[in-house]
Backbone:
C-alpha cells in the first residue's frame, strides 16, 4: 500500500513537472510566470476537489518556483525596452492572489496521519504562504516601479485594501499585514518624504499622514466587533 502511494505521488509530481517544462519552453520568456502561477491555482484546485495532500505539496512548490522566476527574470528586466516583464508579473501575481480563497477551502480538509511533520504546518494553514507571497511580490514590484509620493501612496492604498479584505477573511495575520503596510507608508512620509522638501509640500505630506490614520481609525471603529471575533 505504501509503495502504491509513493508511485502515485511520483506520477503526480512528474505530471506537474511536465506542464511546468511545457510552460517554460513554449511560452514567451516574460509570460512563463503566468503559466507557473496557473499551475499553482490548478494544483490547488485539484487538491481541494480530490482532498489529496500531494497536490497541495505541488502547489506550494510551484508557488516558490513562480516567486523565484518573477524575482530573477521579470523584476530584473522591468526597465528593458520592448519588455513585457511588467504585465507578466502583474498577471502572475493576480493569479496567485486568486489562489487564496482556494487555500481556505483546502484548509477545511484536515491532513492525513501519514503527512510528514514538516509539511503538516502548511497542510493546516495553506492560506498563509498563498497570501504572503503575492503580497510580498506586490510590495517589491511597487518599490521597483514607483518612487517618492507615488510609492508612498501605493503602499498606503495596498495596506488599506489588504486590511479591509482581512475583515472578510477573518485572519489576524492578514489584518496585521495590512496594518504594517499602512504604517510603512506613514513611516516613509514622516522619516523620509517630508524632509525632502522645504516648501508647502511638507505640510501636504503631514496632512496625508493624518488622512491615512483617520481612515484606518474610522475602519477600526466601524468594524471593531468583527475584529474582536478573531483577535
Residues:
Amino acid at each position: 500500500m505504501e509503495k502504491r502511494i509513493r508511485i502515485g505521488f511520483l506520477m503526480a509530481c512528474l505530471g506537474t513537472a511536465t506542464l511546468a517544462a511545457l510552460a517554460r519552453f513554449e511560452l514567451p520568456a516574460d509570460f512563463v510566470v503566468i503559466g507557473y502561477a496557473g499551475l499553482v491555482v490548478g494544483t490547488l484546485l485539484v487538491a481541494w476537489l480530490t482532498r489529496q495532500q500531494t497536490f497541495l505539496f505541488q502547489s506550494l512548490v510551484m508557488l516558490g518556483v513562480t516567486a523565484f522566476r518573477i524575482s530573477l527574470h521579470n523584476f530584473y528586466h522591468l526597465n528593458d525596452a520592448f519588455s513585457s516583464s511588467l504585465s507578466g508579473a502583474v498577471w502572475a501575481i493576480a493569479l496567485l492572489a486568486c489562489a487564496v480563497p482556494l487555500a481556505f477551502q483546502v484548509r477545511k480538509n484536515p491532513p492525513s496521519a501519514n503527512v510528514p511533520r514538516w509539511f503538516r504546518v502548511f497542510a493546516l494553514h495553506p492560506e498563509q504562504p498563498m497570501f504572503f507571497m503575492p503580497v510580498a511580490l506586490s510590495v517589491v514590484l511597487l518599490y521597483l516601479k514607483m518612487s517618492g509620493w507615488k510609492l508612498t501612496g501605493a503602499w498606503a492604498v495596498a495596506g488599506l485594501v489588504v486590511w479591509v479584505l482581512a475583515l472578510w477573511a477573518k485572519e489576524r495575520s492578514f489584518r496585521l499585514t495590512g496594518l504594517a503596510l499602512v504604517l510603512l507608508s506613514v513611516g516613509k512620509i514622516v522619516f523620509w518624504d517630508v524632509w525632502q522638501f522645504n516648501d508647502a509640500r511638507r505640510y501636504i505630506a503631514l496632512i496625508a499622514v493624518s488622512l491615512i490614520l483617520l481612515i484606518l481609525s474610522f475602519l477600526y471603529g466601524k468594524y471593531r466587533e468583527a475584529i474582536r471575533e478573531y483577535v
